[in-house]
């Protein structure tokens, strides 16, 4: 092949001609002209080892200065590991005092310990600030437990199918013996239908024929080919299901004792009861198969038989159990996030929880938001479930920033919910310093923090009511700013820049979560200030506010109510409202914006209702013309 042919062949890759040539013949310029957008950013040495450690969502392996609260939670929840119902817990404390982190830490330990001791225990976490209605809470919980049930059923079916494979392999490995195998090649032990048990154990004809014709009555080898098995007492096949000791096998249901002198094959004279019930005992719940041992029940499986240490008497019983589990799995129905009656959602949730035997701990973070939005119906239903559940037990952990939210609960809910209360006090500056030091050792590479960074972050956060979350955000943001500046170390200046940035982010978050009417009032103030109006008074704000309400078809509040909303904005630090006297014209408020104008406008316009305002400029101009 010539060089030209080789080049032609190399250009055809999976039928695409010219791909390799185009890539290989691209002329590269000098390195500087080909610097990409991210090349400069990647050229610096990273200072983070694991940034996720500094995020609020991270649950550390150790929580400094919270051992008392953690131990108290553990002493309450340890009842779950004994199969008992733990008391409900209410956790109080201000933002950033370690409530959620501590509760998640304890729940993670609880689940790992339950697996260690094979005690079924499930913990489910719900953030009620996001999932804030009874329907959504119940639907989310129902779907989580349906998923858990499906996963457990799949695991159990896999185990049972593996058991069937082992039985088949065992049967194939045994010597072929017409007397010990059924026509399809499976072992004859316990393979006859349950409804034939009467004929095999007590029928005159069956007993007589077996006694006269069994090939193993006088031989040295039994029906399983076991030459060491004694034959003077009769094998289970020849005696209609009796074991070597003379006691009945499991699915015989024969109640005769070993000392019964009645010959096999002849009526015993006494009525035999409960045979059908005894034969069906091997069908249980998903994880409820008893650790039956056929040796203990005098079943006649060889010691190396796959079913010897299982609760199943036959291969057919295993197949029946698999079919039952698969039917259960098909019966589960996922709950949609809208559209069902609440009582139907609750019913599905109830059945999903009670499907399996376990202790369930439901953790409701920001529980006061749920009560504020939807009332206490959810808590009432959850706290009263245990009186109706048969297999499971439910315990509730409520986490709240509001120490007084239980004052609004129904007395019955309050009494059943608040059995145990744990209060998390704010951190002081020294405790915050310990927390930051502990996290920074994992979060940053060695030697990148100057000595004054952690004390300064702790001091700033201590001013904010001991908020550890704020301290961690400060440290992480300072590290990000240093990394963007390609600085090799984090210094005090980076912390101060981070403080300003976080303050702006906080304002943006506050503005974003304002009610629509408050946003309209703030938008009115912002429009006046954009158009050069200074010392804005309440009447001017109210005039613009009315025009905005007409534009988006919103209800118009009274001027007195708008004045109250301005006072609320002032309290949040978004505006600055000062009462001034106008002499004989009375008193009024002079209002000015105390947050960045452009960022505030962007947040307001992100609201779907305010974004419908096409052009507010004419309204402002019209107001001055009039």
Q: Would you kindly provide a written description of the structure presented here, covering whatever features stand out?
A:
- The protein is of the alpha/beta class.
- It is 46% helix and 8% strand.
- The chain has helices spanning 3-10, 19-24, 39-43, 67-77, 99-116, 134-173, 197-202, 204-213, 275-279, 315-331, 342-354, 367-374, 377-383, 411-417, 429-443, 453-463, 468-484, 492-512, 516-530, 538-552, 559-571, 597-605, 617-625, and strands at 12-13, 16-17, 89-93, 121-127, 358-365, 392-400, 420-424, 575-581, 587-593.
- The strands form three sheets. The protein has a five-stranded parallel sheet, with helices on both faces. Strands 1-2 form a two-stranded antiparallel ribbon.
- It is globular.
- 33% of the residues are buried.
Determine the structural class based on helices, strands and strand pairing.
Answer: alpha/beta
- Work out the oligomeric state of the chains in this entry: single chain
> Strand-residue fraction?
5-15%
Overall, the morphology is: globular
Largest sheet: 5 strands, parallel
Radius of gyration: 38 Å
The number of distinct helices, counting runs of at least 4 residues, comes to 23
The tally of beta strands, per DSSP, is: 9
- Poorly predicted runs of 5 or more residues: 1-29, 179-298, 621-626
Distance between the ends: 90 Å
Mean pLDDT: 75
Strand order, main sheet: write it out: 4-5-6-3-7
User: Helix content range of the residues, please?
Assistant: 40-55%
């Amino acid at each position: 092949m010539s060089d030209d042919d080789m080049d032609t062949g190399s250009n055809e890759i999976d039928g695409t001609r010219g791909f390799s040539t185009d890539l290989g013949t691209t002329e590269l310029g000098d390195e500087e002209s080909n610097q990409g957008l991210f090349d400069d950013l990647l050229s610096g040495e990273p200072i983070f080892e694991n940034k996720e450690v500094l995020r609020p969502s991270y649950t550390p392996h150790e929580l400094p200065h919270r051992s008392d609260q953690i131990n108290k939670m553990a002493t309450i929840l340890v009842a779950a590991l004994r199969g008992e119902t733990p008391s409900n817990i209410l956790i109080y404390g201000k933002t950033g005092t370690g409530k959620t982190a501590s509760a998640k830490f304890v729940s993670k330990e609880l689940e790992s310990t339950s697996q260690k001791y094979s005690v079924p225990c499930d913990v489910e976490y719900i953030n009620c600030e996001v999932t804030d209605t009874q329907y959504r809470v119940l639907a989310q919980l129902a779907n989580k437990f349906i998923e858990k049930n499906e996963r457990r059923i799949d695991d159990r079916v896999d185990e049972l199918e593996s058991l069937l494979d082992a039985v088949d392999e065992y049967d194939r490995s045994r010597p072929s013996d017409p007397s010990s195998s059924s026509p399809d090649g499976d072992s004859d032990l316990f393979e006859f239908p349950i409804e034939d048990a009467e004929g095999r154990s007590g029928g005159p004809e069956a007993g007589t024929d077996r006694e006269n014709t069994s090939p193993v009555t006088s031989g040295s080898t039994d029906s399983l080919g076991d030459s060491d098995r004694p034959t003077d007492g009769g094998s289970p096949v020849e005696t209609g299901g009796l074991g070597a000791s003379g006691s009945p096998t499991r699915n015989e249901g024969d109640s005769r004792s070993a000392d019964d002198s009645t010959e096999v094959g002849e009526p015993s004279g006494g009525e035999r009861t409960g045979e059908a019930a005894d034969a069906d005992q091997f069908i249980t719940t998903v994880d409820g198969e008893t650790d039956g041992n056929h040796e203990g029940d005098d079943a006649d499986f060889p010691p190396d038989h796959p079913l010897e240490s299982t609760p199943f008497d036959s291969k057919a019983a295993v197949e029946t159990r698999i079919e039952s589990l698969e039917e259960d799995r098909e019966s589960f129905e996922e709950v949609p996030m809208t559209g069902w009656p609440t009582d139907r959602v609750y019913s599905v949730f109830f059945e999903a929880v009670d499907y399996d035997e376990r202790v369930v701990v439901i953790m409701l973070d920001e529980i006061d938001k749920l009560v504020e939005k939807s009332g206490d119906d959810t808590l009432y239903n959850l706290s009263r479930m245990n009186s109706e559940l048969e297999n499971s037990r439910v315990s509730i952990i409520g986490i709240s920033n509001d120490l007084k939210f239980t004052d609004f609960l129904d007395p019955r809910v309050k009494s059943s919910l608040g059995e145990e209360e744990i209060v998390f006090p704010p951190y002081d500056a020294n405790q915050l310093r310990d927390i930051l030091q502990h996290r920074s050792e994992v979060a940053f590479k060695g030697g990148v923090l100057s000595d004054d960074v952690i004390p300064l972050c702790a001091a700033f956060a201590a001013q904010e009511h001991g908020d550890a979350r704020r301290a961690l955000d400060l440290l992480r943001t300072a590290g990000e700013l240093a990394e963007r500046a390609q600085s090799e170390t984090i210094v005090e200046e980076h912390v101060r820049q981070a403080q300003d940035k976080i303050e702006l982010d906080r304002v943006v978050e506050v503005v974003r979560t304002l009610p629509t009417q408050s946003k309209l009032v703030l938008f009115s103030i912002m429009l006046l200030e954009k158009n050069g109006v200074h010392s804005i008074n309440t009447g001017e704000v109210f005039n613009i506010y009315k025009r905005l309400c007409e534009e988006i078809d919103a209800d118009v509040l009274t001027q007195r109510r708008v004045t109250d909303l301005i006072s609320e904005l002032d309290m949040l630090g978004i505006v600055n409202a000062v009462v001034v006297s106008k002499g004989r014209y009375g008193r009024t408020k002079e209002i000015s914006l105390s947050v960045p104008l452009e960022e505030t406008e962007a947040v307001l316009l992100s609201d779907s209702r305010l974004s419908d305002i096409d052009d507010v400029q004419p309204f402002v101009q019209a107001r001055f013309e009039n």
